[in-house]
Amino acid sequence: MGIDEGADMRTNEEVVREAYRLAEGAVLDGNGFRDLFTEDGTFNDMPNALTFRGDQIPQALTGFAGVFPDVHRELLEVHALGDVVAVELRIQGTHLGAFPTPAGEIPPTGNRIDVPTADLWYLRDGKIERFDCYNAANVLLAQIGATPDFRSAIAAATAA
């Protein structure tokens, strides 16, 4: 192995920590974030059943930062277990952009979010093959004032 080859060898934990750094609102480097993934790597937003691939990966970051431009991820626990890195964190930020929903956009509220999250990162040869983000979407929605419409759900179920 030549000197240049070994100089960029990062541990899996270092790769994941770099991904978080690049996703910070103050840094926001979507292309740099994408470059940490394998060619066929995926970013899976588990609570919303969304999968991002290729050029969609940086778009997912910039879309979220458009709603929460000061987004910060407070890493609470980081555990590297071979090719898997498990992270407990809190996603924090201020709701300053329109939040898209199937029913339309929720205008900015200025509310702070502090969302409990667990991320699982699967790496292959120093690159991210799969990133599964399990964020408490219900907590995020409640924090920006979007509580569930239980009445409509009950009425729809009763009518069925």
TrEMBL record:
Keyword annotations: Isomerase
Residue ranges annotated for the SnoaL-like domain, each copy included: 29-130
Keyword rRNA-binding on entry: no
GO MF: isomerase activity
Listed name of the protein: Ketosteroid isomerase-like protein
